[in-house]
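Two proteins were folded this term; both appear here.
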Amino acid sequence: MERSSGPVNNFQDRALVNFFSSDPRPTFIVKPIKSTSSESQSFELLYYNNALKSHHDYLHELLTSIQSSGGVRRDAHTASFISFVNESRQGDFYHYRGILWLATQVQHEYSIFTGTGSHARHNGEAIVPTVQNLTRPDLAHPTESAHSSASVLDAKQVDKDTSMTDGSSKLAVRSSPFVDWVECVDWSETIVGPIESWQLELRQAVTLSLSNPEPSAVYWGPERVIIYNEPFTTLIKDLHPHAMGTSAKISFGGFWSMFEDICRQVETGGQAVKHDNGAVQLDRSGFLEEAFFNYTYMPIRDGNGRVCGMFHQAVETTGAVVSERQLSALLRLGEMTAQKANLGEFWHATLRSLEDNTVCIPFAAIYSAQKYYSAESDMSESFDGVSSIGNVYRLEGTSGAIKGLASLPSQVDLSTDSGIADAFKTAWTQPHPTPSKARAVFEPLLAETDHGHVVVCPLKLSYDKHATCLIIGLDSLRPYDRGYREFLDLIVRQIEDGATSVVLLEQERRRMKQTVESIEQEKQRLSKALEHQMREAKESDFRFLQFARQAPVGVYILGPDGGVIFHNEAWLKLMAISPENVDRFCWRRNIHPDDITNVDRQWQGMIKGQPRADFELRVVRNDVKPDDSDRMTYIAATCFTQLDAEGRTKSVTGIAMDISVHRAHERVVAERLASALEAKRAQENFMDMVSHEMRNPLNAILQCAEEVSQLMEPYGSDSQENMPSDRTVASIDAVGTILYCGYHQKQIIDDVLTISKLDSQLLSLAPSPTKPIQIAERAVNMYASEIRSSNITVSVKQVEGQDVDQSVRIDPGRVLQILINLVGNAIKFLKARPIRKLEVTVSLSHDRPLTGPVKFVSSGRQVREPSSSEEWGSDEIIYVNYTVTDTGPGLTQEETNSLFGRFKQANPKTYAQYGGSGLGLFISRELAELHGGEIGLVSELGTGSTFSFYVRGRADTQAEHAFNDANPASGPKMMKRCTSSNGPKRNRMTSPRNSSSDDKKPAKRATVLIVEDNQVNQLVLNRQLKRHSFDTLTADNGEVALSILHRSTWWHVPVPDPVHISIILCDLEMPVMDGWTFVRRVRECQDKGELESEIKMVAVTGNARSEQVRAARDAGFDDIVCKPYSIATLVPLIHEMISGGDDEEGEGDGDEGGEGERES
């Protein structure tokens, strides 16, 4: 033979080299060489793998020696193998030294020889027994190691006659029960004769078959004598063991004809024949099961190259075939049910698709709840998110058939006891579909024989899991295993998704129909663009691209070098990249400099094979101003790495989401937390200030009370001496201080209540027709006594040329509250001045007053427009302006800036010198802004100050004045009367006056019934009234007071020694029976005639809110007095009510706040 001219292992097909280098089977590749000399080499060795070199060194030596020397000594067997290498064709195989070599030709350019061994080898020895060793005693023990029984086949002992035998009755294969049984078969009774007479080719083929883990058999001779291995018994089932050694033509009977044709094809063509996915039915698990195999028939040649038998190998492909069927069924179902307009069409398409795949689903039936067809026009209204079981289910149709089942009922009523109804109800309670016998489900339609199994699968449409039921007949030739169950789950899920989509599509169509008219013009403008996009979408073959382009989040794909392969518009927007500036590395351009390091670190991890990365980054938007809060976009990114076959990064796919709103929410939460903490701190400071301001006057009250007690104690009732005048003067001074501190404490309480209502936005306005000049006069008159005692010159005037006596509609109580504060402050600061002048100016205008010398101080909130509601009327808008000018000490600029805040005064010395809580100006500003106006000041140190404010109102053409100037010289208020702002009576202003000859008294001595549970208050009021010439009766609660009324002159039944009662003063909050119940009982007695006439009743309470005042009047009280009150004002009220004098009604608001709780 000719020597190879090229080096070994220089084969250029790297794909085959890579494959064979990892193949454990010995493999070599040769290239045929045409030669005229039969003695010269006729092939060139191109390649051999490591398996051949490492484990078959004798063959490696043989091939390399031929390659190097061109000729070596060889025995007949080796010469026959070399001839096989030279002359082999596609599919030929040859057994050489225990290795079955299969030849594969590639385009007639080179041949590949792959060996398969039937035994292991040891130290390079062949695993086929030699002729000498076939009779060794150790081969009689098949359980021993194959290594111990294997030996080298000596080629010298092989006769050149191809029909030679080795004379042994044992087969060279590892012992097993089946092999032992094969060797014990009486082969002398068969056509092939005893084993020791078998031809070498037959022995080798049988040995190979018995060593094969896959089902395989040998068909020998024209009689097709079959010799098979143990796995082959699962194919022939009951034919085993009788078929062993017999003619397959006889054993296999009628179905052998197909295989006989294959055998003849192999004999005729001399080539291997492969038959894929042949079907066979096997009894594997106690029932007949369909299986599929790939059959390969390979020719067995004798020494002369003639085909003397066939080697048959079968590889099971059941899983692949079944999976392919199921996949085809799923694809068919998806194709046929797509884009259906309604459920009826969808069910029909579903059944037609299942009809085309009866191999996978032999039978199917669909039942739908009847409620979904009660109103076809609005079917989707049933999908309200509530799962409910209908009573009647309608048959949508069937596919396939069950033997013996002619038809199904058109309707199933769940209230009946039919098999189908019970199966439906049972299926809804089970987590997974469970097979049931068809006979049980379709009873009594199938009552005689067993017809297999069915599965009832509930179909969930939208939120309703009881909408539809699908009955599926199971394939009797397939086990109901995990794969079958998962296949049915996929079928059910695909049907559910499709049906739900149909319903949701119907809903969407209705919504679109409702809105299509309003967007018709926009539709025409976008129609061309939409058509273009639709064409592009239809031309696209990739669902991912469709999703990515329309996704609301950024989607992108980067190559291994970081270049952009794909992106959507959302990603460009998130990364602040304009479409015209897109390039491969544009995504790095706008990343915040502080984040680029982290982004690079994440990218390096992805390049190194990290499967996933989650991180955040910031993008700087260059199209936004630098000081804009939207300039920074916060992005959360998630990336996934796609690797190639060698584990290197092929691409990186990612999504990016805008989390700027989330970050903004976090900032808002942090700010609100800080604000809440600041509010808590401010509240604590507020409470500290209130506590401090309350304790200061309280301390003076206690000390003065102790001083009075000490001054008067030596001159008590037991003493005969008169108290000296100096002690009397000191006592009067102390009492005066007590009164002053008490009113100061009351002022603080009123201010705090007003502040609370302002903070809670509960303070409202009560407009009424008012003369602005009268409000100013009222405010001045309230301080008449202080003005006189301090010798202050006061003037109230109007702007020349204006009629401030005209009636306007404003809230007089709120305006008076502001004026009282400003006038009171001015009087405080004027007392120590050499020149004491106070001037109050009133003016009206149709336009909002402009800022002149007076600088208005705003809270920063938008000015309200209160005069727009109905209660203000519809006349023209009028602005009322008040200016208070004094000749006080004036303020510096720093002191001016600190005014109008909570508990703020001009300087720390102000409180020490003039007193006050620091709330007055703050409340005044809030009230002015509540009334649609503003307040401000101008001041010059050493000269004086001017405070000015204005409010917004409306002209009143039907004037009904809220203030009466009948008593313009009345003194300062010492008590407040509580009335409802819309009650039948108006608050009155009264001056502190003692009982004198001017008081209007009844001719008869009056008796007052005091109903009060607090003994101290009861005792003090009782003593004060007696001092003012009243007789008194006391009761601790309403129940005791009722018993006193039963003994009074008012009671309709005469009683001995009746008590005369002129008026009742009653507290509201009392034990046993409170004032509310008491007054109702009294009025009920009046209505029933049990009391001869109406009794005057006055509520005395600490509840000053307008709602509580209104409720007291509604309950039956004639008037209400709020604590604290002055006895000097209470006495005239009692006289007035006893005498029935209501001539002072409409006198004007005695409460400077305009409501029960309003204070200056």
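Next, the second protein.
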Amino acid sequence: MNQIPLKPENERFTDEQWQAIFDQGDNLLVSASAGSGKTTVLVRRVIEKLKMGVNLDELLIVTFTEAAAREMKERIQEALQEAVNTESDPIRQQHFTKQLVLLPTANISTLHAFCLTVIRRYYYLIDIDPVFRMLTDETETILMKEDVWDELREAFYAENREEFFRLTMNFSNDRSDDGLTNLVFSLYEFARANPDPEEWLTKLSESYRLENGLADSDLYKTQLRPLILADMHQCVQLYEEMVQLAQEEGLEKMYDQVSGEKGQIQVIYEHLLQDQIPEAYSGLEALTFTTFKSSRKAELKERSAEVKELRDRAKKIIQQLGKNYFPVSPEQMEELTQKAYPLVKEMTKVTKAFMNGFSQRKREKGLLDFNDLEHFALQILTKKTDDTWLPSEASDHYRKQFKEVMVDEYQDVNQLQEAILYWLREPNETNGNMFMVGDVKQSIYSFRLADPSLFIQKYEAFSKTEGGRRIVLAENFRSRKEVLSFTNLVFEQIMDPVVGQISYDDAAKLVLGFPDFPETEQFEPEILIYEKEQEETTIELPVDDILEDKTEGELFMTGLKIRQLIDEKFMIYDKKMKKNRPIEYRDIVLLTPTKKNNLTILEIFKTFDIPLEMNDAQNYFQATEIRTMVSLLQLIDNPYQDIPLASVLRSPIVGLIEPELARIRLADRSHTYYEAVLAYQAEHTDELADKLNHFGEQLEIWRELARRSSITDLLWSIYYQTGYLEYVAGLPAGAQRQANLYALVDRAKSYEKSSFRGLYQFVRFIEKMQEKDKDLAEPVLASVDNAVRVMTIHASKGLEFPVVFLLDMTKQFNLQDLRKRYAFEEKLGAGIRYMYPDTRVLYDTLPYQAIKLAKQNKLLSEEMRKLYVGLTRAEQKLFIVGSYKNKEETLKIWSEVANQTSLVLEPSTRLKGKGSLMNWIGYSLMRHPKMKEYAEDTTVHNQLGQSESRFSITWMKQQDIVENRQSLASETKKELESVKVDQTPLQESLKARLAYSYPYKASTQTTSYQSVSEIKRLFEDPDDTSDSKLVWENNEKRRYNQQFRYTQDTLAEPKFLQKSQKISAASIGTATHYLLQLLPLEMPTSDSIRSLLEELVAKRLVDEKVAKKIDLSGILWFYQTDLGKRLVQHSELVKREQPFSMLLSADQVFDQYPNEDDELLIHGIVDGYIEFPEFIELYDFKTDYISNGENQAEIEKIVQKYQGQLNLYKKALSEALDKPVTNVYLILLGAKKIINLNK
């Protein structure tokens, strides 16, 4: 240990923090409790290292997230800049300046990022291509895995080996072999968290041999035996206590009963101590619990109840003992475990084959995933000689380079990452250079295969100065003493090495570090409990006030409490302002175990007018708009799918109602729903058939588009054709829904950048994501400035909030993983359940038993640590929300611990399979003196807990919530009615503002772009024949909007709202122009025109129904006219469908326009013109319907309608080509007339 400088008297750091900053010469583990300022300590340690002459590139600083790395760099930069500004010594100042230059390239990053640096530098040591791409897209990863596995599985099936068939049968069902797929994928991922996955997999089968019997196996001796003996020892102690209590006169029968049972249990215990497992099993099988013989005497009732309570606890232990450890006889356990040996060997072989196949596929494609980075970096840092691992030249280089290796959030490191860090640090532990900081009580990332046991091992070893030293930062600078004492009260009773994996001793307890909070009574933690069971009442509740489930009840309680805090201006202390102020929405956070109820939170909090900021409003794939789009994509891929088809038909895209769906099914009851749709179309001609016909035609268009275009184009086509993007914008949370649909397009783009293509693969990917209960993150909208935040406990780690609501605390622990047919553990290996082929009954093998129990303990330990993280996010006020059947049930559950004597609750209490975080809290409170206020009828014989801890509990029924809501609404109304304001100044101000006229208003309201199609009606007025000035006469029949832009008076009804698709004149005109554009400039015939049209229909460029409406005779007539023949004759001079743009003064387009200097851009498309050397002839086709081609008045009206438009074309052409336009032909195909507008 080096000499630590004396801490100045005015230094704000604690003695422990000061030691953590300056101590060196050994490996150091800093156990930093929540709110203890670990990041500040880490940054200061870096700065002090630099002051001692170390350079930044001689430090490796590993963070858990990229955000943490950025924050670390920013803090170091601020500290360095301050050092440069304040340092008077020019040499030291130059040194600090150099560090600022080194900072951008300093090794301050996640371990993955550092591994990438190692690989790019030393790739040649492991023979990989330095030109690789990171496999970061989950879509590509999943699909590539599936492809490799499909090929591999087919190869294994082709080998026709009994071992593989048995393995498949053991983990699959009669519907599919997905169980084997899930096993292989899970085992592969788990193995890769190990430094040597192949070796770890190879050793898995060793624990199944049992060559010397059950009692001699390592798993039994190290895992099961200690747990069994601990339970039996507890049971014996309970019976000794019962015998003592039953010795009282009058309890002779009870004494005989419990004494007899104690003797049996003592014998079983002795057998287990001597490893006589068959005898112990026989004893347990023979053990029976007869009816309890209690005393009827009033004076002995209390003593009888005590004995009965102890006996019930002992019975539960014995029952769990049989269930957990002896589900079958020892002989049968040995037999089925040995029978499982070849299955585990085959499982290992298949998983290795997949691992190698997937690795080879990635190499072929030049891809690396994040786990590859760590494995390849470890390969680079090591070399193997005679089965011994030695440092490579790369390891030697980094060990010489790095004066210290600093690791933040060390509790979340896994075995593989630990191995990498070993080859980077100083190997001589007497001169260690590892600085590790973290808090094992906040290790909540087991789903990322974090291994908190690494921290715990060093925590225990370093306390004895074995291999390093331990420093504990216990002072909490975040929270009030009420939050800290409550947290200590709970965790000193529930956390120990058995559950929680570490003792919550005096070193682990939170100590108040920020004493500046004002003293007040109002900050005691509050527990809010919704009573699910409703009382019978004569009061009839409004339908809107009836709560559907416990979640709604909990959320209404929470909403009421938040409104109360806001409305009553609850005062909190502002650390920045250093004074009290009223609470704001931004001071509050809702922490949830999962995102499952987020959508319900949004809906309920709207009723309270409480603004929310929520990054994940709901599961992405569960969003209505995404479900609809996914169903439509599934339908386009394969229409013979009943559920997606019904979903789309029922959606706004088609808009059928349930009776219509039933009518369709009646058309064909025995086949698929798609065939029923086809049958209905064939048999009916009603409105429903029209809808189905229209949708069927559109579906075929999309199916064709999916075959020849990208998924991105397909999605945009769907959005455009259906108007669905605009439709969802009008729904609640419309902006989020639109963002979700845009995100689906982005996901499709990402997918198509991978090596996979096609709609089928994309749909398959989405289905796999849904099957595995995975999700895509919702796109995040802009945050709300003053809003209650909603996030998961995981997302809140590292953050702090003045007021915290922990929601859904009575949610049962998720132990789904324990119900699978396999279980994995880092040190114990893999356990499987064995299925007897004849009976197809599954049994636990010995390794499965041991690993399942270890895993259960780990899962519950992590739940406990999640609770710790949740409680310690609160700075000042803490609310814990849950629900029970009623108050009586609450107290009944909690009072199970009333007679437990030890401070730490019994493991059997904490390890309950149907437990919850709230139960743990309730157990911890039950023995507190304050519980007398809530549980008057419950006798607590051993009151424990901190007397200074304060809390309150509130139970609320549905009727209470309704009354509180009504009272809240009534008070709000009274407050609004009582407010009297002199509105005269406001009215005068408003009048002045409304009377103000902006001098350049016209310019701000004038479009800079105008299409000819929008302004063509300008020229329809029969009274205006002028072509010299383009003025719109203001009359009521034809008007421009007040923003100086010509628009259509009405918008077309969106297609998704149209009952049937009508063929518009515009559609016919567009198709006719398209046909004329593509028609070769040679003398056409009726057959050639029809042939071209059929080709356009076949290519889906022209709708078949529209094609039937095109007047082909008019086209044929035109080419027989002089003008038509001239086009054919001078085909090389003809230009067709030519776009143009021109600038016009705004006052030429808009009458009474005030600003002469303003211009706007006119854009249009000319049907065609013939450009002769000296002049131009312009022509334009029109398909307007004319009832009588000889009616001069009707012809004149048509001419007047288009004359101004063609004058614009004439002007544009003449100016662009610098030639006169001598003839302007208006070709009326319907009337078979050509009119020269220049004559």
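The first strand starts at residue 28 and ends at 32. Confidence is low (pLDDT under 50) at residues 1019-1045. These notes refer to the second protein only.
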